[in-house]
Amino acid sequence: MKKTKLFKILILSAISFFALINITWFSITYIKYKPYVDVIPKNSYGFHVFTDENGYNYNVKKPNYLSLTGNLGVTNKTNEFALIIWPKIFGKYIYGVRIQQEEVVYSIYVDENLKPIYSGNEEIKNIINKYKPELEILYNNAKKKWNL
């Protein structure tokens, strides 16, 4: 009888722990991403994607199951430039840009001022500086769209 009771307690504890993890994950991601998905409607395929009147594309990727990492994205009409924003749980953001030049694609982490985080590479600094006006448009569009 003791083994049966212990087994029931262990099963109930495991189920409770699993439920707690899922409720916590759902609550955190729902609360964190609700303001972002509210302004980007779902398309007919169920994705949060929107193109504005100027041709800029916006998307929200909510975190996958039991992950806390999703992202916000803004691209220009030609997809040459993209800004990716990873919202942190406690309010800060990580930024990245993607710049496509012909057949070369640069993916670069930047700060909120669009300066490369790993700034030891002069080529990366020059690329960011060369395309800073385009990247600033993406950044300002994202700030306006999601109140960042």
User: Element order, helices and strands?
Assistant: HEEEEEEHH
Number of domains: 1
Major sheet details: 6 strands, antiparallel
Outline: elongated
* Helix percentage range: 40-55%
Provide the structure class: alpha+beta
Distance between the termini: 59 Å
**Ranges with pLDDT <50 over ≥5 residues?**
none
Mean pLDDT: 92
Rg over CA atoms: 21 Å
Total strands: the figure is 6
Would you kindly provide a written description of the structure presented here, covering whatever features stand out?
- The chain is 42% helix and 25% strand.
- By secondary structure, the protein is α+β, with helices and mostly antiparallel strands.
- The protein has one domain (2-146).
- The chain has a 6-stranded antiparallel sheet, covered by helices on one side.
- The model has no long low-confidence stretch (mean pLDDT 92).
Task: Label this structure with key terms.
148 residues; alpha+beta; six-stranded antiparallel beta sheet; 6 strands
Task: Reconstruct the topology from this structure.
Layout: H1 2-39, E1 48-51, E2 57-61, E3 71-75, E4 81-87, E5 93-101, E6 104-110, H2 122-130, H3 132-146
Summarize the structure.
The chain has helices spanning 2-39, 122-130, 132-146, and strands at 48-51, 57-61, 71-75, 81-87, 93-101, 104-110. It has 148 residues and is α+β, with helices and mostly antiparallel strands. Strands 1-2-3-4-5-6 form a six-stranded antiparallel beta sheet, covered by helices on one side.
